[in-house]
From TrEMBL:
Name of protein: Iron-containing alcohol dehydrogenase
Residue ranges constituting the Alcohol dehydrogenase iron-type/glycerol dehydrogenase GldA domain according to the UniProt record: 10-175
Top-level division of the source organism's lineage: Bacteria
InterPro entries named in the record: ADH_Fe/GldA, ADH_Fe_C, ADH_Fe_CS, Alcohol_dehydrogenase_Fe
PROSITE patterns xrefs: ADH_IRON_1 (PS00913)
Xref: CDD domains: Fe-ADH
PANTHER family for the chain: ALCOHOL DEHYDROGENASE, HYDROXYACID-OXOACID TRANSHYDROGENASE, MITOCHONDRIAL
The Fe-containing alcohol dehydrogenase-like C-terminal domain, residue ranges: 188-382
Keywords for the protein's UniProt record, in alphabetical order: Oxidoreductase
Protein's UniProt keywords contain Oxidoreductase: yes
Keyword match Oxidoreductase: yes
Species this protein is from: Candidatus Enterococcus moelleringii
Length: 384
């Protein structure tokens, strides 16, 4: 357990069935708003209600919707540059992690002083310049809660997390209508991403009493609702629980940190553009099995919290094994691909993958069991 720990989080959180309507009271100080979103979300009509509220308030606004999924840092910079032309004083992100991460970068890069590339070298350079509001449409990355923005770095075949507390959103709106019609493959992959955040943060070397509070509640909400939320379009309660769970898991990331699942996942996103939630889902069971000797006590604690009809008298080994089997079952039921063959990753790329994965020291140091290059190779081999 760490001796010192802390938590920074968004100052204003509005949640509930009609939370979007709170927008009216939030934007009163804004004179020019930029709405960040992407083409897929725009097509769903999810931007219509926030847009109508802004129009009713008579506030000038522009929509920037050409954000690509999982942008690299050049693409993110191009979006920041588009934003700068608007001279806005308020940002609203309506989207998944890709949209929110670009919006968060824009909130600290509104002048020409620094670029996204500068932040890759020194993430703490820039300060908050623009008030920001995050409305997640996936459940999800938890990016609405975190100080992180993840960008691809093509020359390193990696994704890299820029971490700067100045990027933490000022406002968050969690409205389950935003995820109601999420297509199943996206709901499944983004849901398992949130699941990974919760279990990794709870078993991280940086875990602490504050992060555990959020990580365990997130794990409980997510494990007990993810299947229903992803497979039953009418399961609004389950979807609300997922949205809250993914937010809590994002809060847990901020105070604790993810571990080897996310570390080894970044090269799969960076080089092969496998969706973030899918690459995490693929690595979840192999990494948890690898970590089990170092985290079984924690998995037993998680079992007691999460498994509603569980047998408290089971041995630690049994509880831990059950938890790992449940995680594996969730990925299977949700039909998320678990082999790199699906993405035509050739076995001769293994050395490169191991080298790139081992570079993610920011997260590997959080893993309770040390991951050597040989271990990373064996884990990747399991998903080859
Ligand atoms: N900043 C953080 O703390 C953090 C944490 C985890 C992941 N991430 C990053 O977030 C990105 C992934 O974000 P994501 O998983 O939310 O996916 P995403 O934002 O890339 O969106 C994936 C697809 O889903 C569509 N979509 C989103 N919401 C929808 C909705 N409600 N209905 C229909 N379609 C919808 C989008 O149009 C897009 O095509 C990655 O770059 C990842 O590295 C960031
Ligand atoms: Zn993630």
């Amino acid at each position: 357990m760490l001796t010192d720990y802390s938590l920074k989080m968004p100052k204003n959180i509005n949640a509930g069935e009609h939370a979007i309507e709170q927008l009216e009271g939030i934007i009163t100080q804004a004179s020019k708003i930029v709405i960040f979103t992407d083409k897929g979300i725009l097509a769903t009509g999810l931007v219509d209600l926030p847009k109508a509220i802004i129009e009713k308030a008579g506030i000038d606004y522009t929509i920037i919707s050409d954000i690509p999924a999982e942008p690299n840092y050049h693409e993110a910079q191009a979006m920041v540059d588009e934003f700068k032309k608007e001279n806005a004083d308020f940002i609203i992100a309506i989207g998944g992690g890709s949209v929110m991460d670009v919006a968060k970068l824009s909130s600290i890069l509104a002048t020409d002083e620094y670029t996204v590339k500068d932040l890759l070298d020194d993430p703490l350079l820039a300060k908050k310049q623009i008030t920001s509001l995050m409305i997640p449409t996936t459940a999800g990355t938890g990016a609405e809660a975190t100080p992180n923005s993840i960008v691809g770095v093509p020359e390193k075949d990696l994704k890299i997390g820029i971490v700067n507390p100045e990027m933490i959103a000022d406002y968050v709106i969690l409205d389950s209508r935003m995820i109601k019609n999420l297509p199943k493959p996206i709901a499944a992959a983004t849901g398992v991403d949130a699941l990974c955040h919760a279990i990794e943060c709870f078993t991280s070397a940086k875990a602490n009493p504050i992060s555990n509070t959020f990580a365990l509640e997130a794990l409980d909400l997510i494990m007990n609702n993810i299947i229903e939320a992803c497979t039953n379009p009418e399961a609004l309660d389950a979807k609300s629980h997922m949205l809250l769970g993914s937010f809590y898991a994002g809060v847990a990331i901020t105070s604790s940190g993810t571990t080897a699942v996310h570390a080894l996942s970044y090269p799969l996103g960076g080089k092969y553009h496998i969706a973030h939630g899918v690459s995490n889902a693929m690595l979840l069971t192999p990494v948890m099995k690898f970590n089990e000797p170092a985290i079984k006590d924690l998995l037993a604690v998680a079992y007691d919290r999460v498994v509603k009809d569980g047998d408290k008298d089971l041995a630690v080994d049994e509880k831990s094994a059950y938890m790992i089997s449940k995680l594996e079952e969730i990925v299977k039921i949700l039909e998320i691909p678990t082999s790199l063959k699906t993405f035509n990753v050739p076995e001769e790329d293994l050395d490169g993958l191991v080298a790139a994965g081992m570079e993610v020291t920011r997260l590997l140091v959080n893993n309770k069991r040390e991951v050597t290059p040989e271990d990373a190779r064996n884990i990747y081999l399991e998903v080859m």
